[in-house]
Amino acid sequence: MKNKLVDIIIVAGILLAICVGVVTIKHYRETASKQIEATSKINFVVYLKGVTLTNSDIPIKKSDKTFISIRNVPYSDLDVVDVVFSPKMTTISSNNSKGYNIVPDASQPHTYDIAVTVTDTAKITKDGAVVGGNKIKIGLPITLEGKTYKLTGTVSDIDIEG
What we know:
By secondary structure, this protein is of the alpha+beta class. The chain is about 15% helix and about 50% strand. The protein is built from two helices and ten strands, in the order H-H-E-E-E-E-E-E-E-E-E-E. It has helices at about 1-25, 30-35; strands at about 40-50, 65-70, 75-85, 90-95, 100-105, 110-125, 130, 135, 140-145, 150-160.
């Protein structure tokens, strides 16, 4: 009796595998390789908010390489396309017609907001761009790492070329 039960389970498993194979061959089911529509260059901006630097020299430079980690998983070195930084700003009231002025925050003199644009080749799917096995979407946390820095920010803009 036990041999018959085991034999029935094995035969059912083989029949199920054959059915899945037929469905895949007949294009009723898409495999992972068929979900990729194209490969394209992608630029995305990582916004680093509230970075504390005791000197005004930003460690990330245009044309450098930066190593990134996505969801704490190391990925690769990427080229830095652009770096925009500004000191932390605050709003104070004024007597002119605008009613306020935006000035550097004196209470946080060494705090900067930095926008770093990096580039890579991404696989384009129906759901968006995939870099290093991760979908790149606005709000995704990413860590940038170089010789003298390790900073965490979020994706704030995506530009898929082509």
